[in-house]
User: Fold these one by one.
Assistant:
Number 1:
Amino acid sequence: MVRRPAPGRAAALCRGGGGIVAIHAAADSHYDWPWYGRMIGGRFAQHPPGTPEADVTRTPHRHPATDGLPDHFRIADEWYGFGDLSTDLDHLLTFDPQSIGAKDVNPKPLAWAHRVGKGRVFYTGLGHRKESWADARVLAHVGGALDWATGRAKAPAMVVIDEAATRVREAPPHGRIGMGTAWRITDRVPRRTMEFRRRTLDKGAAIGVHRIDHDEVYQLLSGEGDVTSDGVTRRVSAGTTVYLYAGAAVGIAQRGARPLALTIAYPLAVPAR
């Protein structure tokens, strides 16, 4: 049985910056209370019979409720479909309806988080079966949600990197044209959402032209070279920064007598584990 809190108290909790963790049937309740549906983020619409196993996928959104989960896993539960989903949700988990015999090919929302006023609201559709509460994945999922909702979840303070320890001699990527030195600065940073590199291209070396699926930044530190983006080439030198756009075919080649040194930064499509 789901107990209905006093509307004023629940609203005050969100307005004051409190947190709510809502589990499974919390979305199947209080249909005469519109604010409650908006607070949860969606309304139960239907579910198929039984508690079959389904394929669950973690979305790219980084969140304490999913940091401890694998990218993909199978689990048994009662699989809700939802209506009236809010547009401001950070979707955290989805499930594949075909994995439980449905014809729909589109992933279905399973867990999400959003802000209501100053408050934090988390919802998961997992948790129907009593066996779920002995499953380490569900416990990590809900435990992370509680940390986030209560404000206990903290980002790591920082990662300090000794660049010298990341230094390798290697041929540049995308064509292996010539040789160079790479400082793979962020390779070992957990949970990162961006990549940061320093490279020196020896004389005649180049990062070959390749299509990028994210924006990218080249910052020239010393030497000079030719940057190409979709067939347009510009000579660049120390003190120059080049912003390159997703979808372009880009590359950079060393020119002149000195090696070309630059930093390269770009976002990751999925946060690193």
Number 2:
Amino acid sequence: MADSTGTSQDAETPKKKTLLRIVALLLLCVVALAGGFVASVGPQGAMKLVGLADDPEDEAATSGEDAAEDHAAGDGHGAAPATPATPAGLPGEHIVVTPFQEIIVNITATTATGRQTTRFLKLNLALAYDNRVSGAENIESRKLFLRDSFQEYLRQLNENDLQGSIGLVRLKSELLRRARAISDSDAPQEFLIADLIVQ
């Protein structure tokens, strides 16, 4: 009799372990799914969907109404009418976009067998800069020097340096760093890439 009870307990132990593993796996899947959801919509978006975050647009509208009431409460002598502010990140009249001539350079590549070869890189880009910043006038006069510096940098690249979105971000940041150094100004804001072809 004791043997039959011991055998049934031994049989239940692997079942319990299997059940615990399945529950732990399901819990891990739920946590991973939640993490992926938060990563895709962002923490603010997830909080907003759950209903735990205030809507920033409502807060902005409320603060804008408060500012308008404060402005209206003033005496108004010599005050100019309020103009809507340009949202952050949108180009205004002070942003100038200057295109560069097409750049074609050789870059190195590695074949599947490990042999070094060359590829052509074709790049069409434009520089967006803020003409209110001191030194912005240097950009147009030093455009040829900028192009020369860009070509020098691009020739040092290999095909793997341009792979994926991280390659594009790195390329833009390096070009922006060179543009700011050559123009001796913080006026260059961003590079806009129309074509980036490697063949």
Number 3:
Amino acid sequence: MPEIRFLTPEQEALIPEYQEKWKRISLTTQPIEKVRAAAAIKGVYAVMGKPEPNVVFCSSPRAALDHLQAQVSQVDIPQNPRSRTKEDIQNNFIQFFAEAAWETIKQSNKQQNAGTKPILDLLMEVSVESANSIETHIERCLPKGLSIQDMIEQTVLNAAPMIDLMGKHQARRGDPGFSKMIKMILDKSPEDGRESFSDMASAALEMQLGWIPGKEFLFRAWLKKILQGILIAEINGMEPPRFRETLAMPLSLAEQKYLVENAVVVISEVVYQCSWLDFAISELNYPHDAKKWAALQGLVKYCGWVFAAENLCIICDRPTQILIDDDYQLHGEGEPAVQFADGFAAYAHHGTPIPEKYGTVHPQEWQAQWVFEERNQALQEMLVQSLGAIRVCQELPLIEVDTLQEYTLLKLKGVGVNDTRVLKRVKAETEDILAVFVPWHQDTVRSAINYANENYSAEDFPIPDNENQR
């Protein structure tokens, strides 16, 4: 069945313009204009039928937290909770579970009563109206009487651009075979006689769910939701920079908890929503409340982070520096990825928030022993990838998994990232060392060589002569 497209070629050609427009807004470092910013906040509260708040300006999120503690009596940022050992949790699991559940309930209740709720409600109302219109749009485009196999096939076909994008991101992060692997699994017309993914998935679902009356109707509803998400993701493009997580890194755990409970509005996240909303309203002519859409755009264009409690609304100034990589992710090398005029700064490495200890040092000078000192597994993985496969071979303890002629498949020993695999080749004629990371499921040297040959370099990682038959 041919792919069903939900946008015309002309509409698809306009998508990059909207992505670029809102990307520029999210990365602006111009100081906010206080008069316009105050008017934008008051406009949001007015359009949502809420009393006008008192507006205060601060130079950074750090300064905003300090101001709240000083000015609002109800704001009480607690001390850091005591850390619990693994033994504590095991010996008092029921108590620990009950406390965690109660904390989740309290956090949810606080979010529902957060001072920023009018802003979040505005975003929700504008987004839901357009999302419903997209679902209706998809329903009109879908032919009647689609089989379950047709529905799965359409999901695969429409997801292909996003898979390509994910593959490019993964390639930059050391896994060039990700996109190829996914495409092989989802291939609509395999050349080796295998059944396609849609054939296998359809057969499995028919076997397990064939008895359900009206299953085609249920799957059609499922398909519409999936396609809705794919279409919105296609319009938005790349994921937004992780400002919230990055700027939370220098804060204490208690302060981070406060940010979550009080639903602080991070403008870059709202910008990401506005990208597809702008396209849907401007190009697809979806119905919308013009006043609310204008209020939402004013908030994004004229404000920085927004904190609110009671009738007080604090607007942070924009950063003076924002550094990103080719994937539109926060990234600084030996300097802050985000910095504010008052000196508050945060660090990130290709989108991963990192502490100042790493951020102030250029990645080329990062030390191998940090991998063992670090307790956060995500940061361990980031450090390992940044060191590179050759340095990992030379400076970290490894366990030999398998060998073949010049090749050795290795895995890390004694750290939290034990699934990391390295294929090492020592050239017999020169004793030069070549090494690359391979996915954790490459558990034999033969499969690792094939992976490196196909996804890195056939010249650097040739298949041994007696291994050509496979």
